[in-house]
Amino acid sequence: MRANKMVAAIILVLSAWLALLPAHADDSLKRVIDQKTLTVGVALNPPWILKNADGKFAGYDVDLTSALASDLGVDLKLVEVPWNDLKARLLKGDFDLIAAGYASTPERAREVVFSNPTGTADIRMVASIASLGKRPGRALTAPGYKIAVLSNSTDEAAAKEAFP
Fold this sequence. Notes:
By secondary structure, the chain is an alpha/beta fold. 42% of the residues lie in helices and 11% in strands.
């Protein structure tokens, strides 16, 4: 809860700061329109990005970026990359934006610009009752207990904070 309030405060401060800066235009939008293609980096992260049985992308971020490309009058090209490569490939210029449930964090905001939030998600831990027993708190702090998360994700940060 405290982390959510801190992130919200940082986003508010950054938004106010950006609003006070003089307008700075780059050629990103012009390039997308001239090339008639919006290239979007994605990593599988249901329900934001997933693949159907036929191998086609689906999910909330696919719908969102499809609508954006349609509004711009351009084609949509989705480029699947490993989760840990999203930011580096964006900064390298391999795609125009990221759409993968990529949460805004202070560390990430130092290098990339985030849109307003388009969705929210709770971070929850799921474990079998058999693995935790009658004293879940004790089991979770026992040596050797493993918690699996996506590396470099907000889930990893939440797990490290909750289970140091």
